[in-house]
Amino acid sequence: MARLLIVHHTPSPYLQEMFEAVLSGATDPEIEGVEVVRRAALAVTASDVLEADGYLLGTPANLGYMSGALKHAFDTFYYPCLDSTRGRPYGFYLHGNQGTEGAERAIETITTGLGWQRAAAPVIVNGTPDKRVRERCWELGGTIAAQLMG
Fold this sequence. Notes:
150 residues, seven-stranded mixed β-sheet
């Protein structure tokens, strides 16, 4: 069975809404043969990443950069996973109250270094997530999970 790992830092109600929508899309009953594992960014291990076949990342954009928790996650697993996870699909979602460009750029730089392949457009929102944002998050979760179906 394929495994999708969701690594998230969810400190706000807005990010909780986005996370729940991503999770709902990834666990849609029409998607078969994919186990969805979720880990808080401060709890994820290199073993979690190595055991997964694809990834979804969620973070706030704090002062224009990804959260310290997601950065810590990358620092924890980057080198142990560098050669073993190349080519795996990933997607991400961001929530900010101001600029998110730095967070987006940092995630893309690190995942490029890992050799991961972005498999869907990111969901990036400033301010309150509306119904359309939640739908896009659901689509993001479903898209990445569906790509892992055998």
